[in-house]
């Protein structure tokens, strides 16, 4: 019973601090987030915050996850557009690019920043508190969303395309890793203002690279079965 009460208390405190962090991000921006600001807004001391979060990077990660709700909610709708695994996977990329380039600083924290290792543990902790974010999702999608390693997420999903005859098994890892690197490259370009891309241009350029990568590894003839296309 004591253990159960402790977990309830922990979840309650997490919500206090993450609600406060979310408010700071919305009002002042991600760069203005500090442990002290969040603790003050939550009505606690900084030392209390450190009882629940290892450091500021972890608190930022958990707060950033609160801004992915729209992406998680829309993902099943995009996956349903596809008529096969590769098709659905390309539509899922469209959904991810749409949301990630809309809030690049948020998605960079989640998928690119150094969090000191144990990222899977951080994600497990997050969904332990915000389990309702996963409950409403289909089981197949739930397992993908709860895997933070983006490349592994892709591999888990597109493996089915091997049985469907779209790609060879030895291409799965390459396709997953290459497309992730393409997204990270574009994300770095956007965040560092290396090119004057609009959000829409960043989305379409990334999708073009992802689609062209798929086209180069897909078994000849099978590309005709895809409904996904790049908007001109």
From TrEMBL:
Keywords: DNA-binding
Ranges for domain HTH tetR-type: 11-71
SUPFAM superfamilies noted in UniProt: Homeodomain-like (SSF46689)
Gene3D superfamilies per record: Tetracycline Repressor, domain 2
Transmembrane segments: none
A single MF term (Gene Ontology): DNA binding
The entry's DNA-binding region: 34-53
Keyword Transcription: no
Name of the protein in its database record: TetR family transcriptional regulator
Native source organism of the sequence: Aquibacillus halophilus
């Amino acid at each position: 019973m004591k253990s159960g009460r402790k977990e309830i208390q922990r979840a309650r405190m997490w919500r206090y601090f993450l609600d406060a962090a979310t408010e700071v991000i919305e009002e002042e921006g991600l760069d203005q987030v500090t442990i002290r600001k969040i603790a003050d807004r939550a009505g606690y001391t900084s030392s209390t915050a450190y009882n629940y979060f290892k450091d500021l990077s972890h608190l930022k990660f958990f707060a950033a996850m609160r801004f992915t709700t729209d992406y998680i909610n829309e993902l099943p709708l995009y996956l349903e557009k596809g008529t096969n695994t590769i098709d659905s996977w390309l539509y899922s990329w469209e959904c991810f690019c749409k949301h990630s380039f809309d809030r690049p600083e948020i998605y960079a924290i989640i998928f690119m920043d150094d969090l000191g290792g144990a990222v899977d543990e951080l994600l497990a902790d997050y969904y332990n508190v915000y389990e309702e974010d996963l409950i409403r999702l289909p089981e197949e999608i739930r397992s993908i969303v709860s895997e933070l390693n983006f490349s592994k997420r892709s591999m888990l999903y597109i493996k089915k395309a091997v049985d469907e005859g779209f790609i060879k098994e030895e291409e799965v890892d390459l396709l997953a890793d290459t497309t992730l690197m393409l997204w990270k490259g574009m994300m770095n370009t956007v965040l560092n203002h290396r090119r004057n891309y609009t959000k829409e241009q960043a989305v379409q350029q990334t999708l073009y690279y992802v689609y062209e990568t798929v086209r180069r590894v897909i078994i000849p003839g099978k590309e005709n079965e895809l409904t996904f296309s790049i908007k001109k």
